[in-house]
Structures are given as C-alpha cells and as structure tokens.
C-alpha cells in the first residue's frame, strides 16, 4: 500500500474475463475470475488508495491473513 492506513474495506465477486483482460493475463476469453475491489482509508476515514484486482481462477488461489487485535484491558 505505501501510504499508511487504518482500514481496508472492499469486496469480491465472480466474473468472466473479457478480451482485454485475457490478453493482458495470457488466458482465454470467458474464463472465470474473481474481482477484488478494495479501498484503504486513513485514521480520519479519508480514502487514501484504491486497488482493483483481477484474479483468473484457473491460475491462482486467493488467501487472506487478517490480524485480530485484542482490546486493551
């Protein structure tokens, strides 16, 4: 990310590759994919960066690691 941030919010949805995406990724038109759209916000809630990620299902697996902070007692 590079800009620092306090929150990342977004979502993922299924789709199929269109010609331009298939050409760029070296796969066939119509193959299944996952689209991930994410916005990073600073500690004041302002968006500081956006990420649009296209993942062809045939080539990659999506995995996440999410740190869970324990509240101070």
Automatic annotation (TrEMBL):
Pfam families attached to this UniProt entry: UTRA (PF07702)
UniProt domain UbiC transcription regulator-associated: residue ranges: 14-54
Top-level taxon: Bacteria
Record-linked InterPro entries: Chorismate_lyase_/UTRA_dom_sf, UTRA
Protein's UniProt name: UTRA domain-containing protein
Organism: Streptomyces akebiae
């Amino acid at each position: 990310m590079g800009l620092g941030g306090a929150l990342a919010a977004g979502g993922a949805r299924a789709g199929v590759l269109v010609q331009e995406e298939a050409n760029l990724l070296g796969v066939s038109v119509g193959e299944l994919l996952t689209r991930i759209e994410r916005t990073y916000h600073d500690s004041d809630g302002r968006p500081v960066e956006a990420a649009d990620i296209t993942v062809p299902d045939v080539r990659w697996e999506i995995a996440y690691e999410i740190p869970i902070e324990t509240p101070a007692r």
